[in-house]
Design a protein that fits this description.
Elements lengths: L1 H15 L4 H11 L5 H16 L1 H11 L7 H16 L4 H15 L3 H24 L4 H5 L3 H10 L4 H7 L7 E4 L6 H10 L4 E5 L2 E4 L16 E3 L7 H5 L6 E4 L6 H9 L4 E6 L2 H13 L5 E5 L14 E7 L13 H5 L4 H16 L3 E11 L8 H10 L3 E4 L21 E7 L1
Parallel strand pairs: 5-6, 5-8, 6-7, 8-9
Antiparallel strand pairs: 1-3, 1-4, 2-3, 9-11, 10-11
Helix pairs in contact: 1-2, 1-3, 1-5, 1-6, 3-5, 4-5, 4-7, 5-6, 5-7, 6-7, 9-10, 16-17
Bound molecules: S-adenosylmethionine (SAM).
The site of S-adenosylmethionine has 19 residues, from helix 13 and strand 6.
Length: 426
């Protein structure tokens, strides 16, 4: 467990230094090939869990310490040990003993081990009163930065609390069934035969009762199913593409929504574009697993079509723009601590620039679907309204779906927080 704790400390430290947790873990796996699957699972659980509950954990530490711990890795060691004490079934003595041993690997300072031991044992003794003391602290209660809580409170006065709490739930695993090769009902039977319960949500979306490694999914490598949130699965049907149409997915990698489009509509002329070459590698892997070969791949900047556009108009454009990802924090709890208050306005500027640049590429009568995985209004309805007010030839069509309120899906058990705005060129 010492190695598990130390690698979890490394993951938390690198996250707070500004890196993406998925990437960090990928590097940790590469650098530590002898880790067992169980150890990897434990490191992942501790790192994700600590970040999910970091507001609460940090507030408890604040109460327990007379002054902040200067050495950051020691602070993070206390944080992960507190996470384990509060949320795991590991025996208390094992957590504390291993944290003390881990501290000796972090520093030779003889006081460190004593501090770790004292703080964790004090927590166990005073747990109830400590939790009581931080009850009125919103950052501790919800485990989000205060600015994030305030923004949601202001934008969703009635359901901000539900949104915050939904982001702290363990995410459910959702699949998109590839109806080119199978049917939803048949695939559910294949899952049931493997002992995996599933529930049909809508379209080709299934929710699994528990997460499963993709290699265990029936026919995964043959392209029968794709892991994709049910909210993300609304994009392709909303775009309403038909056979023979020229379709551009302008921010396409890793290809979740464009592969769905290719599965749903035969004979579209599909162009997939992304600015980041490395992400396009994952896109091509996904297309090839699903045996989709008929598409044009472009690496380029959606803000500058003159660099990559062939001059022929598109009938449909999907702009699944870069965003704060505030609607998918249950899957990526690091986002809560990586974002800054100024990020939403910066994203909104980029999003508006991309929309403005793509609009001239759309055929008259054509449709453009604007999408984010954010719940912040600055990136969603405000961008859509500004776009409408500056484009006389654009009208906004309703996004018909039972789960959306004016295109905004709030995160919950059936889907993540997405936003869709569909525009038609008049
Ligand atoms: C939300 S992700 C897209 C997810 C993808 N549509 C899917 O469903 O799998 C946004 C993507 O936009 C790309 N991106 C960011 N800025 C861009 C730009 N200026 N032009 C084109 N792509 C960009 C990112 O590399 C990222 O892959």
């Amino acid at each position: 467990m010492i190695e598990v704790q130390l690698l979890a400390v490394q993951a938390i430290g690198e996250t707070f230094a500004g890196a993406n947790l998925n990437e960090i873990l990928r590097h940790i796996w590469q650098a530590n090939t002898r880790l067992t699957l169980q150890q990897r699972g434990a490191i992942q659980d501790i790192a994700y869990g600590t970040l999910r509950h970091y507001g609460q954990i940090d507030a408890i530490l604040h109460q327990l310490l007379n002054k902040p711990v200067q050495l950051k890795p020691l602070h993070y060691l206390l944080a992960i040990a507190l996470y384990q004490l509060c949320f795991s079934k590991t025996p208390v003595y094992a957590i504390v003993d291993h944290a003390v041993s881990s501290s000796r690997k972090i520093t030779r300072n003889p006081g460190a081990a004593g501090l770790i031991n004292a703080v964790l044992r004090n927590f166990m003794r005073q747990r109830t009163s400590l939790l009581d003391q931080i009850k009125t602290n919103e950052v501790a209660r919800y485990s989000y930065p205060q600015w994030w809580i305030d923004k949601l409170h202001q934008q969703y006065p009635r359901n901000y609390e539900a949104i915050l709490l939904a982001g702290n739930e363990h995410p459910t695993m959702m699949l998109r069934i590839n109806t080119l090769y199978t049917s939803v009902g048949h695939y559910q039977a294949l899952l049931a035969a493997q002992g995996i319960d599933s529930e049909w949500l809508w379209g080709n979306a299934l929710r699994l009762a528990r997460p499963v490694a993709v290699e265990k999914l029936p026919g995964f490598s043959e392209g029968l199913a794709t892991v994709q949130d049910a909210g993300a699965q609304l994009a392709a049907p909303l775009l309403d593409a038909g056979a023979g149409m020229r379709v551009l997915d302008a921010c396409a990698a890793p290809g979740g929504k464009s592969t769905h489009l290719a599965e749903l509509v035969k004979d579209i002329e599909l162009t997939v574009l992304d600015k980041h070459e490395a992400r396009l590698v994952r896109l091509t892997e996904n297309f090839s697993r699903l045996k989709i070969t008929d598409y044009q791949l472009l690496c380029g900047d959606a803000m500058h079509p003159s660099q990559w556009w062939d001059g022929q108009l598109y009938d449909r454009i999907l702009a699944d723009v870069p965003c704060s990802a505030s609607g998918v924090v249950s899957r990526h709890p690091d986002i809560k601590w990586l974002r800054k208050p100024s990020d939403t306005d910066n994203f909104a500027q980029t999003q508006t620039t991309i929309l403005n640049a793509l609009w001239p590429l759309l055929q008259q009568g054509g449709k453009l679907l604007y999408a984010t995985c954010s719940v912040f209004n600055e990136e969603n309805n405000l961008v859509a309204e500004k776009f409408l007010s500056t484009h006389q030839d654009a009208s906004r069509l309703p996004c018909f779906h039972a789960t959306t309120d004016n295109g905004q899906l709030l995160p919950g058990a059936r889907h993540d927080g997405f936003f869709y705005a569909l525009f038609r060129k008049n």
